[in-house]
Specification:
The chain is α/β, with parallel strands linked by helices. The chain contains 28 helices and 31 strands. It folds into five domains: 167 residues, Isoleucyl-tRNA Synthetase, Domain 1 (Orthogonal Bundle), CATH 1.10.730.20; 179 residues, HUPs (Rossmann fold, 3-Layer(aba) Sandwich), CATH 3.40.50.620; 224 residues, Valyl/Leucyl/Isoleucyl-tRNA synthetase, editing domain (Isoleucyl-tRNA Synthetase, domain 2, Alpha-Beta Complex), CATH 3.90.740; 55 residues, no CATH class; 73 residues, 2-Layer Sandwich (hypothetical protein PF0899 fold).
């Protein structure tokens, strides 16, 4: 009967379980951090350090978090934590956007269900309900964010609806008022008939839309003789704008032709003998569209020939009895249509601009709900979405319609209601892009900012370079009011610092509701007669609110700093928060409110599709946390390349669970083999075997890589390096080799002490490096070894790695040794598969190497490295049947069974087993170790 020597082995012992059990464990750690005021202790600990301020882009307070929220907040947390652990004071203040249309809609929806009209409810009461709705969701989202492991000043977040924030937003608005940047103008703006408000560029998204297209004849009324009795033909995709037509634009240097219809196909609305004018380059397209099979060109010339031509409106005689002049326009092209552009100055930016140049009337035709005003002939009360076919029918009745068609094209929609938009002439408040050189200041600020990725710079630069004036006003109730007065007599904006100060004092004390509950005289004071002034009734674009967060958060809180070190949001925020913050700050402070901007992609499902309820592919972060824990979600974030769109689904989550399991096993091995560790065991680097010195070198390399990638926010590279180090270099190489030493060597043997010294350093490095990413697991690992009420891995910094750990020459050498080992293990794997051996310890292979391997392998215990019972190294030519790997030239292996007996303790097959008098079933090493232990000896 063989002796059981298991009790003599120094096997790993730890309470750190193999299974994480994260869903049950994480809430307890969150409670622990709250009880010990971890965030407050971090602040006290780092109060004298250099600040790193990641300013939070405010999510909208109107529902539970989705996977995009989770990804965004986790990424911010990883960055903030990593900067804290690199020696900065990284104070993170979360915030929320609380005003705006989505919340207002929710309250309106409640009223509609109750059969009430919002307009019948006092505005202050309505706003109170909006405020309560937003406050509820702030608290819900706060708890959901905290469950993700996000650390921050949750007790003092910012919200755009707090009184101090609303007052600061008003203060920023009044700065534009005082410097002349704010003005009221009448011009066409993107308008949502559904939401009954103007929309900013940032609130648009483009979807395919099917439009009715029409080719329309405008009869020539007067002009040079050659044009009389003919028609100018226009083409448009918006028939509803025909009542707003006041001119036709032509390209002054473009080539045009006049043609007479000779022959038509059946069903064509063209008439044989009629004469029409179009761009020369588009003649064939127009003929094909209109079903004209033959025509004679009767005139050729440049666009300037039309400068004195007047046309009749197609509905002349039915209330449209005005001249329609032909005007020169640089916006006219031959990309599509006829070369003549139907110009409705109230329904398009280019139409508006060319109309201003030529003094064309800008009519008011469409009301806020998208219906034509009562004064609009023929179409009063009709909705612009529904009248396109009706307009075409009326044109056909009067003989003006040449062709009707359909076109699927990209068209602007509201990103909230998803409804198509219209250009509508309205009175709005604007911030000028040219006054005070706002555009040029913003463009310079873009170049002074660091963008991650660098392509973000080009995107926002193009947007700022070409954007129109900022439409600041919204015709809604829930938001910060535009707190200005205009003279009823002159229309001039009242600019008075005393009035402004009075407004701000009231806002800070009572909030913006005071604008609605107070008479104008309260703000104007005794210096003005309230009857002489109009009090603005619009609210501010919510992008102006969020664009001011830097002012009421970064500047107003001494623990923070302005400008922010970093802004971070999705790529859509080039047109949103990054954009509005840039313009607001440049208009009031002359520079951007951030030093750097990082953007990430969107989260798609596992197949790369956008998530939607209809597809049933929505991945809820709450479900992932419930099933797997927040650390798995965090692992997915740092493992993803967020510079592009990211994917998540069941299989992807399973992959992250597998990665987590490998990391956890690495940590468990380290903890288990550091059981009963004592600092006195440590040995100096110079006294360590080369293998341990190599691990220290790799830690030095990793430290440099980790700090570089943390500072460049490239966490997927960082995580990949740590994961590969743990699985390939530690578990599959170093741990594999050193298990024998750790388990079987004498307790105080130098090799074992060296290995444990390495494990101690690995523990300190890995727990710190993983702490910003796997916040719960790193803490659990740390507390397993260092329990205590005040103990936390999150109060540490990344370890300082001594310069002497770096040894590039040794790394090169051990890279070659690892290649040598791969050939040996490859050969033995075949032996195991063919069942010629059961374990590599049954082998003592002969290894043939070329002379260049000799100095590299000299003095090493190759049997330990290859986990065999022996290695016969031959610097000689290998037999032809020896095992080789093409990628490792110079090494060949012939498998040989080890000679001798199997040691009953370490299981190596050695000739020396049987020599020891007392422990004849052990090798000499194991016999010596057992002899020092209190282990019974068989009689």
């Amino acid at each position: 009967m063989s002796t059981d020597y298991k009790s003599t082995l120094f096997l790993p012992r730890t309470d750190f379980p193999m299974k994480g059990g994260l869903p049950a464990k994480e809430p307890g750690l969150l409670e622990r951090w709250e009880d010990m005021d971890l965030f407050g202790r971090q602040r006290e600990q780092s109060k004298d350090r250099e600040k790193f301020i990641l300013h939070d882009g405010p999510p909208y307070a109107n529902g539970n978090l989705h996977i995009g929220h989770a990804m965004n907040k986790i990424l911010k947390d990883v960055i903030s934590r990593s900067q804290q652990m690199m020696g900065k004071n990284s104070h993170y203040v979360p915030g929320w956007d609380c005003h705006g249309l989505p919340i207002e809609w929710k309250i309106e929806e409640k009223y509609r269900k109750a059969g009430k009209d919002k307009d019948d409810v006092p505005v202050v009461e309505f706003r109170k309900e909006c405020r309560e709705f937003a406050a509820h969701w702030v608290e819900v989202q706060k708890e959901e964010f905290k469950r993700l492991g996000v650390i921050g000043d949750w007790e003092r977040p910012y919200t755009t609806m707090s009184f101090d924030a609303e007052a600061q937003i008003v203060r920023e608005l009044l700065k534009f008022s005082m410097n002349g940047g704010l003005y009221r103008g009448s011009k066409p703006v993107m308008w949502s008939p559904v939401e009954k408000t103007a929309l900013a560029e940032a609130e648009l998204e483009y979807h395919d839309h099917t439009s009715t297209t029409i080719h329309v004849r405008f009869p020539v009324k007067s002009g040079p003789d050659e044009f009389k009795g003919s028609s100018i033909v226009i083409w448009t995709t918006t028939p509803w704008t025909m009542p707003g037509n006041r001119a036709i634009s032509y390209g002054p240097d473009m080539d045009y032709v006049g043609f007479e219809v000779v022959e038509t196909e059946e069903g064509s609305l063209a008439v044989v003998g009629e004469k029409m004018y179009v761009a020369a380059e588009l003649l064939e397209d127009v003929k094909k569209e209109a079903g004209i099979t033959a025509a004679n060109v009767v005139w050729e010339g440049k666009g300037n020939a039309f400068k004195d031509v007047l046309c009749l409106h197609p509905f002349n005689g039915q209330g449209y009895d005005f001249d329609v002049p032909l005007i020169s326009g640089d916006h006219v092209t031959v990309d599509a249509g006829t070369g003549f552009v139907h110009t409705a100055p109230g329904h398009g930016q280019e139409d508006y601009e060319v109309g201003l140049i030529h003094g064309i009337e800008i009519p008011q035709t469409v009301s806020e709900d998208g219906t034509f005003f009562a004064h609009v002939p023929m179409f009063a009360g009709q909705h612009v979405y529904k009248c396109n076919e009706g307009v075409a029918d009326e044109l056909e009745k009067v003989g003006a319609l040449l062709k009707r068609g359909k076109l699927v094209h990209s068209y602007p929609h509201s990103w909230r209601s998803k409804a198509p938009l219209i250009f509508r002439n309205t009175s709005q408040w604007f911030i000028s892009m040219e006054t005070n050189d706002l555009r040029d200041t913003a463009l310079k600020a873009i170049d002074d900012t660091k963008w991650y990725p660098a392509s973000g710079r080009n995107r926002i630069h193009a947007m700022i370079a070409g954007r129109p004036d900022w439409v600041l006003s919204r015709q809604r109730a829930w938001g910060v009011p535009i707190t200005v007065f205009t003279s009823k007599e002159t229309g001039e904006l009242l600019r008075d610092e005393k009035v402004n100060a009075r407004i701000l004092d009231i806002m800070e004390a009572e909030g913006s509701d005071a604008w609605y509950s107070s008479p104008a005289s309260r703000f104007l004071g005794n210096d003005y007669n309230a009857d002489d002034f109009e009090m603005a009734s619009d609210i501010l674009d919510v992008w102006f609110d969020s664009g001011c967060t830097h002012a009421f958060t970064l500047e107003n809180r001494p623990e923070l700093q302005w400008p922010a070190s970093l802004y971070l949001e999705g790529t859509d925020q080039h047109r949103g928060w990054f954009h509005s913050s840039l313009l607001e700050s440049c208009g009031t402070r002359g520079r951007a409110p951030y030093d750097a901007v990082l953007t990430h992609g969107f989260v798609m499902d596992g197949q790369g599709r956008k998530m939607s309820k209809s597809l049933g592919n929505v991945v809820a972060p709450q479900k992932i946390i419930e099933q797997n824990g927040a650390d798995i979600l965090r692992l997915w974030v740092v493992a993803s390349d967020y510079s592009e769109d990211m994917r998540i689904g069941n299989e992807i989550v399973k992959g992250q669970v597998d990665s987590y399991r490998r990391l956890r096993n690495t940590l468990r091995f380290i903890l288990g083999n550091l059981d009963d560790w004592d600092e006195s065991e440590k040995i100096d680097l110079a006294d360590m075997p080369e293998l341990e010195q190599w691990v220290f070198h790799r830690l030095s390399e990793l430290d440099e890589m980790i700090r570089h990638n943390c500072n460049n926010y490239e966490f997927s590279k960082l995580f990949s390096a740590i994961h590969n180090f743990c699985t390939l270099e530690l578990s599959a190489f170093y741990f594999d080799i050193r298990k024998d030493v750790l388990y079987c060597d004498g307790q105080n043997d130098l090799r074992r002490r060296a290995a444990r010294t390495v494990l101690d350093q690995l523990f300190h490095c890995l727990t710190a490096w993983l702490a910003p990413m796997l916040v719960f697991t790193a803490e659990e690992t740390w507390l397993t070894r260092f329990p205590g009420e005040d103990s936390s891995v999150h109060l540490r910094q990344f370890p300082t790695i001594p310069a002497e750990w770096r040894n590039d020459g040794l790394n090169e050498k051990w890279s070659k040794i690892r290649s040598f080992r791969r050939v040996v293990t490859g050969a033995l794997e075949i032996e195991r598969r063919e069942k010629r051996i059961g374990s590599s310890l049954q082998a003592a292979p002969t290894v043939y190497v070329t002379p260049d391997f000799g100095p590299v392998l000299e003095g090493l215990d190759l049997a330990d490295i290859c986990i065999t019972s022996g290695v016969d190294l031959q610097i000689a030519t290998a037999p032809e049947d020896a095992f080789t790997l093409e990628e490792v030239p110079g090494v060949a292996v012939t498998p040989v069974l080890a000679e001798g007996e199997k040691c009953g303790r370490c299981w190596k097959t050695l000739a020396e087993v049987g020599i020891h008098k007392t422990h004849s079933d052990l090798c000499l090493r194991c016999a010596d170790v057992v002899s020092t232990l209190d282990f019974p000896v068989e009689a």
